[in-house]
Amino acid sequence: MALAPAFILVAGATAHSSAPVTRPAANAVVAALPRTVSITFGGRLMRVVGVQVVDRKGVNHATSARLDPRNAARVLVRTTRPAAGRYSVRWKVMAEDGHGQSGTVSFRVRP
Ligand SMILES: [Cu+2]
């Protein structure tokens, strides 16, 4: 039987299972993509596995992603501040208890 890789998705009522709060917010329409996109989770994280901010063509505009040194529940994502359009933030993190989590949030930048 094939076993899943080390990254295991978890569902259920754990502290970190709820959807994170992002800035810009999910489905928001903003005037400009901020230099730093933030993703705030319900609990502390062990590490950031990976974050991409992709446009409709699949081009990644994230230049770095790291834990906020002042808040271990928050990921700060630096972007190249691209032009108008729709963007999807695809994130993968590992919670403090070692559980993996991933998801996607989209928002739009006005022309
Ligand atoms: Cu967990």
List the main descriptive attributes of the protein structure presented here.
mainly beta; Immunoglobulin-like; binds copper (II) ion; four-stranded antiparallel sheet; 111 residues
Number of strands: 8
Mean pLDDT, to the nearest integer, reads 87
Over the alpha carbons, how many angstroms does the gyration radius reach? 14 Å
Q: What is the helical fraction, as a range of percent?
A: under 10%
What does this structure look like?
The protein is built from no helices and eight strands. The chain has 111 residues and is mainly beta. It has one domain (24-109): Immunoglobulin-like. It has a four-stranded antiparallel beta sheet with strand order 1-3-6-5, with no helix packed on it. Strands 2-8-7-4 form a four-stranded mixed beta sheet, with no helix packed on it. A hairpin with a 4-residue loop joins strand 7 and strand 8. The chain is elongated and about 40 Å long. Copper (II) ion binds at residues 10, 14, 16, 95, 97, 99. Copper (II) ion binds next to loops.
Write the layout of secondary structure elements.
Layout: E1 21-23, E2 29-30, E3 36-40, E4 45-54, E5 62-68, E6 71-79, E7 85-95, E8 100-109
Parallel strand pairs: 2-8
Antiparallel strand pairs: 1-3, 3-6, 4-7, 5-6, 7-8
Bound molecules: copper (II) ion.
